[in-house]
Amino acid sequence: MMGTRAYLLGLFAFIAFKEVMLFGDAFSLISRPRQQQHRNLHPNTSHLYQASNNNNDNNPADAIGGDLVTALAKLDKQWELATTSNNGKKKIGEWTIMDLKQDESTTPEIVYLLEPASGAAPSCVIFFLGGAVLGQFPHIAYSAFLKGVAERTNAAVVAIPYEVGLDHFGIAQKAVSRMKSAVVECEDSRGYSASLPKYAIGHSLGCKLHSIGVAATGIGEELAGLGFVSFNNFGFAETITMARSFANEMKLGGNTGFQGGAGPAPFDALFDLASMAIGAVGLEFTPSPDDLDRIVKTKFNEDVLKKIRLFKFDDDDLDSSTRFLNCFKEGVESPSVSNLPGTHLSPVFLKLGVDDLDLPEEARAMADAATGGFQNASFGDEEILDALVEEVSDWMLGKSPRRSSSSSSSSSSSSGQKLLAGVVDAEIES
Question: Is 270 within 8 Å of 312 (Cβ atoms)?
């Protein structure tokens, strides 16, 4: 059990490392110049979207930190089997896939839709963007969080998946496009009222992407609220440093539970190589942290700021909320802040496996074969997640923060050890 526990913990340690796109973008930037593309999504702010020619598909960086994607993909496969094994019938209150691609397009434009479990018409719509890597599988990694908020607010949730990359402008542009297409689809095909309040909620990198989208398109005027959970605006070099620290703290260097049997030397060498690459080419996300500061200073007016709630965790060393708040002058009405117990990964709670899915007996063997023996996984702290769900729901319902200033409370365990990500457990058949 200890080996499998360490394995799943190791997968989540790579959340930060995967975000940097180490080999895929670093060496492609050395070998070719970046070309600028401009797309006019809003008359006066199209210049904010200056996407590089690098896309996020088939990235070689999947070979580094790809274990996390593999684990989530296996859970996603189980979810797909459960969804398709019921003769195409969908359960009320469960996730469904909406493909928003245009008739002439051959590329899927996928979002995940969660409608009220009561079967009633939704009272509002939430557009959600998750953090790096986890945001590729929002219906898996954030399902418990989003279902909890949806249940308390009678909301429909549109979770927008994305693959990480250096070009955050381009990712945000695609996300806004899918948000707009989802609104049209829900109103035309599902009878949603055009007057339904709309909220944008993000976690970690998802907060930055929402910020770019609001600044570039003006959609902030159409939103009832913007919820930023663990806002992260790290630069590329900070991400490398943070990934190394995160991994060392969990002592992954000596863990032999990783697929492929990577030991301490290859693991440390990857971080060393990443640091060398940054020093050699001055690699950075677009927009950089400083650029994003300038963008929000320029584009976020008081009407938008009034709609923002920041959700900060006491033991979150990766949170950039203070930096975000410092972008705005004194005297301007700042966004409200909710302080909560927990860590950067507190919005993530996984308790899913073959036994938890509604699979007929004949489909269980298929699930076992398709997922390589991956049976059950749990990750996170349910009590801390419930506190977040309640706080986010209360914000949407117009309530003030329960705790608007930091305190000494933390998500430490009873033994006094700091919990990096709550409870982790897994069962993986060999």
Answer: no
Of 277 and 168, the structure prediction assigns the larger pLDDT to 168
Distances (CA, A) of 206 to 95, 139, 209, 223, 276: 20, 15, 5, 16, 28
In terms of C-beta density within 10 A (0-12 exposed, 13-18 middle, 19 or more buried), how is residue 331 classed? exposed
The DSSP code for 160 is: -
What pTM, to 2 d.p., does this model score? Answer: 0.73
Q: pLDDT (tens digit, 9 = 90+) per residue, 255-270?
A: 333 333 444 555 566 6
Q: Show the DSSP H helices in 103-235 as ranges.
A: 138-141, 143-153, 168-189, 205-217
What's residue 239's pLDDT?
Answer: 74
Cross-strand bridge partners of residue 312: 339
| Residue in 303, 339, 307, 304 with CA at minimum distance from that of residue 321 | 339
- Digit-coded pLDDT (tens) for 106-125: 677 899 999 998 888 999 99
**AA identity, residue 374:** F
**Rounded CA gap, 313 and 170, in Å?**
29
User: Cβ of 314: how many Cβ atoms within 10 Å?
Assistant: 19
5-19, 36-50, 355-369: which is most confident = 355-369
Element (H, E) at 374: strand 374-380
Radius of gyration of the chain (CA): 21
| 3-state SS class at 20 | coil
